Amino acid sequence: MGYNAQVTITILLFASVAAAAGIRRLEMPIEPGDTVGSVRDRLVACRPELAPFVPNLMYALDEEYVKDADPVRGGATLALIPPVSGGC
Questions:
Q1: pTM, full prediction
Q2: What is the dihedral of CA 19, 62, 38, 5, to 10 degrees?
Q3: Tens digit of pLDDT for each residue in 6-60?
Q4: Given CB 3.0 to 4.6 Å as the disulfide criterion, which of 25, 58, 74, 86 pairs with 81?
Q5: What are the sequence ranges of the domains in the chain?
């Protein structure tokens, strides 16, 4: 008898992205060949309120900055980071 558990990724949302989504952390299934961009696009399809943030987002996969085309593996943590301002 086989075990067919779905492989997931943890997505962390920060600052204005978290405020718009009303959530800071969620789990999402991944598919073979997924990239940062494909995971993001599926997330935005489920949560269209995040679409305005996409052009300026930065991404970190397991605490290392990555690009849209970088691959995503099961069990990873993907952070969506909007630009932040501050200072004096």
A1: 0.88
A2: -100
A3: 899 999 999 999 999 999 999 999 999 999 999 999 999 999 999 999 999 999 9
A4: 58
A5: 23-81
The whole-angstrom separation of Cα 41 and Cα 78 is 13
Encoded tokens for 45: 């399809």
Beta partners for 61? 64, 78
Backbone φ and ψ for 61, nearest 5 degrees, come out as -110, 115
Assigned CATH topology for domain 23-81: Ubiquitin-like (UB roll) (3.10.20)
Compute and round to an integer the Cα radius of gyration of the chain. Answer: 14
Contact criterion met (CB below 8 Å) for 23 and 13:
yes
- β-pairing, 58-61 vs 77-81, is antiparallel
CA gap 73, 9 in Å, rounded = 8
State the Cα–Cα distance between residues 71 and 45, nearest whole angstrom: 19
